[in-house]
Design brief:
heterodimer, A: 2 domains, 5 helices, B: two-stranded antiparallel sheet, 73% helix
Chain lengths: 159, 496
């Protein structure tokens, strides 16, 4: 999604204000004029200035292009599905990887992503590819590199 | 010279050589497939290098990046899609050559030019870094503060067409770097009571998010145009190379020199080196009208330049701990994790490690000749790898790689948030590289400032009291003021 620079600028000014406000209760350092609030505040001030600059840059251009340009992918249900699937996959991993274990979580994520991206026509090859990849990653990271990937419900059959 | 012998021993170890070969294959693959960049290759390598000694880890990164930057020429010439942004400058030119039946020449010049540029970059790195390190040994927190400022300034001003958006990106990176316990006072900043945020945002999770996850999202949402491999059978790529390089020897040297120079500048790497070299080639060409029609001259310049830039970027990274591009930004993160603070003291106490990096660079570029040849010959198969299959696997690698850093899914969340942020930033033409530099240099900037102020009792003028610090400070302040000064000059010139 492409927005006019002025909108991005306004957003930055709001963010800068928020950052500044959050530094209000930062303590001073004893005997020092510069404390932990210095850098965040400096960043906030510069960010507000840059935001103002973007507004100055964006306002004259408002007639030339729509304020918000919806990119091609946001008009195509297939691409929106792909975008949502990628994000959902990571969230799914964060939530269930520990109880479910890596191999199962990995298999589900890969299978869903393959099906979303390749279409249902390749269902069986997608499922087998997902299974093989999940096991290979488990072997490579879990066994070879000794990353403690969770086994979850498969703990009893862990190899 | 003892250290050099030791370094040879470190690199010529069978394990290290095997790691380099695997990294080379990985780099060629990542570079040749559009949508997978050299930076992404490094981001994905990091979790694996985590489990290695420093020498094989660094050798793997050096090799993978050199290969990726070359391999990105292959889809440029055959698909008209750059494999990584580093070849974008001459993609149209290379493809026009393929259209004229000169695919072999375009690829041959790309390969051999990359090797020569890469070796040049390695030699400059090997000769200049130790000398600079000698000077850097005398630097105090004042000089480092200005170096960090200068690095960040270059990153914002050079890395994007729009310096204002570069600055915003930089500020976002710096802001993210302030999350966690303040290093001097120990006060928690922007942690909102979340314990996992106390230690700050994990840098490698951020890198993988901003360079790999963002790229995965971009690829799966790309509304594709049909891709057609313009030429499937590749003949002898070395035919006629001698005369081309003889004719354009000046271009070869010029491209290499510009590449190293741009590489050394913080924040600007191979991508920008290639654009500038291509532009310079056209400007000084005797036949500028031929550019864009499948003329090899610009490819000689830019092909050497992007590989030379890789070596250049390591100079400030190794000597000062200030990354020259986003790849070396990751390297610095890796070095810190390995308990080695990049900077001149490494040259003093572990010179064999530095020499090993130099040798790895030379060896990687020599390896590029045979391996690159094989990659070109198998281009047909390489370019047919379906991205719908690749992207989910890469995403899985990102997740597991990020998890592996601290064995916590919190980092996976950080990766996701920053990946989505980077995706939308790039959609709106905000470059991501300055944010990464901000993230790496933010802590250095703060620590050097606070240490300096404690030393100088809060007197800001102390930043200008030592000669080198004063010099660096004046240059930095002048760059900051330059947009203002130029605006003033324009106004003065305007007739009243």
């Amino acid at each position: 999604m492409k927005v006019n620079d002025a909108i991005a600028g306004a957003g930055l000014i709001v963010l800068a204000g928020l950052v500044y406000w959050l530094t209000a209760d930062f303590p001073d350092m004893y005997g020092q004029p510069y404390g932990p609030a210095l850098f965040p505040r400096l960043i906030a001030v510069l960010m507000a200035l840059a935001g103002a600059g973007l507004i100055v840059q964006g306002v004259p251009r408002r007639g030339l292009a729509p304020v918000v340009v919806v990119p091609d992918w946001m008009r195509s249900p297939r691409h929106i599905a792909a975008f949502v699937a990628v994000i959902a996959a990571v969230v799914f991993y964060i939530v269930v990887s520990r109880p479910l274990g890596f191999v199962l979580t990995g298999f589900i994520i890969l299978a869903v992503l393959f099906v979303v991206l390749r279409g249902r026509a390749h269902l069986w090859s997608s499922l087998s590819l997902a299974a093989v990849t999940a096991v290979v990653i488990q072997q490579f990271f879990g066994d070879l590199l000794r990353v403690p990937l969770p086994w979850g419900v498969l703990q009893s059959v862990a190899w | 010279m003892d250290a050099v012998g030791l370094a040879f021993g470190l690199i010529l170890d069978p394990y290290v050589l095997m790691v380099m070969l695997l990294a080379a294959a990985f780099g060629l693959f990542m570079g040749a497939i559009p949508g997978l960049s050299a930076t992404m290759a490094v981001a994905l390598l990091v979790p694996v290098t985590f489990f290695m000694e420093p020498v094989p880890a660094l050798a793997a990164i050096v090799t993978a990046t050199a290969m990726a930057i070359f391999a990105s020429d292959i889809p440029s010439a055959l698909l008209r899609i750059p494999g990584t942004p580093a070849s974008a400058a001459y993609t149209d030119e290379a493809f026009a050559m393929t259209r004229k039946g000169q695919a072999e020449l375009a690829l041959g010049v790309g390969l051999v030019g990359s090797v020569i540029g890469g070796i040049f970059g390695a030699l400059v790195l090997a000769t200049s870094a130790p000398v600079l390190a000698d000077i850097a040994l005398r630097f105090s927190s004042f000089e480092y503060f200005w170096l960090a400022c200068l690095g960040l300034t270059c990153a914002a001003f050079i890395a994007s067409n729009d310096p204002l958006k570069g600055l915003v990106s930089l500020l976002i990176g710096l802001l993210i770097a302030t999350i966690g316990l303040d290093p001097v006072s120990g006060h928690p900043r922007f942690t909102f009571g979340v314990v996992d945020l106390m230690g700050g945002i994990n840098f490698i999770a951020a890198m993988i998010g901003m360079f790999a996850v963002a790229e995965v999202i971009r690829t799966v949402t790309a509304v594709k145009r049909p891709e057609q491999i313009a030429q499937e059978r590749i003949g002898n790529i070395f035919k006629g190379l001698g005369s081309v390089f003889y004719r354009y020897k000046v271009n070869l040297v010029r491209g290499s020199v510009i590449g190293v120079g741009i590489g050394v500048l913080p924040g600007a790497g191979s991508d920008i080196a290639a654009w500038i070299s291509y532009g310079v080639a056209r400007k000084f060409s005797k036949e500028p009208e031929k550019f864009g029609t499948g003329h090899v001259e610009g490819i000689v310049d830019a092909g050497a330049s992007n590989n030379a830039g890789l070596g250049g970027a390591w100079v400030p990274a190794l000597v000062f701990g200030i990354p020259g591009d986003s790849i070396t930004a990751i390297v610095i993160g890796v070095l810190y994790v390995k308990g080695m603070n990049p900077g001149p003291t490494v040259f003093l106490y572990q010179p064999e490690l530095i020499y090993a990096v130099f040798i790895a660079f030379l060896l990687a570029n020599l390896l590029m000749l045979p391996l690159g040849y094989i990659a070109i010959k198998s281009a047909k198969q390489l370019l047919r790898v379906p991205r719908e299959v690749l992207m989910p696997i890469i995403l899985m690698f990102c997740i597991v790689g990020t998890f592996a850093i601290n064995n916590t899914v919190f980092d996976v969340g950080v990766m996701l948030v920053l990946g989505v942020l980077a995706f939308f930033m790039e959609e709106n033409d905000f470059p991501v590289a300055p944010a990464i530099l901000g993230l790496v240099l933010g802590p250095l900037l703060q620590e050097t400032f606070m240490t300096s102020m404690i030393k100088a009792d809060g007197n800001l003028l102390a930043f200008f009291e030592r000669p080198i610090a004063a010099g660096l400070g004046v240059v930095t302040v002048l760059i900051w003021l330059s947009p203002l000064l130029m605006g003033l000059r324009r106004r003065m010139r305007r007739p009243v």
